[in-house]
Amino acid sequence: MKDHFCYETPFGIFGRAFDFLLLKRHMTRFLKIRNAMMQEQAEQLVIR
To answer: I need a labelling partner for 13 at 20 to 30 A (CA). Which of 20, 23, 30, 40 fits?
Structure first.
């Protein structure tokens, strides 16, 4: 399974700077954690 996550930050150059400095790393980490949790739950359902 693959996630395709598209977003655009508002506020022009300030938004792009915020994206570069913080947001992209935060969202990547968020999706990796979410995917790990979903995988763990799916595997628990298969084991039962």
So the answer is: 30
Q: Answer for the pair 15, 9: CB distance below 8 angstroms, yes or no.
A: yes
Share of residues in the chain with pLDDT > 90 (%): 67
- Whether 5 and 31 have beta carbons less than 8 Å apart is answered as yes
Helix and strand numbers, DSSP H then E, in the chain: 2, 0
- 3-class secondary structure, 11: coil
Of 8, 13, 1, whose CA–CA distance to 42 is shortest? 1
Angle at the Cα of 27 (from 25 to 30), degrees rounded to 5? 110
The pTM of this model reads 0.71
Q: Which tokens sit at 46?
A: 């298969």
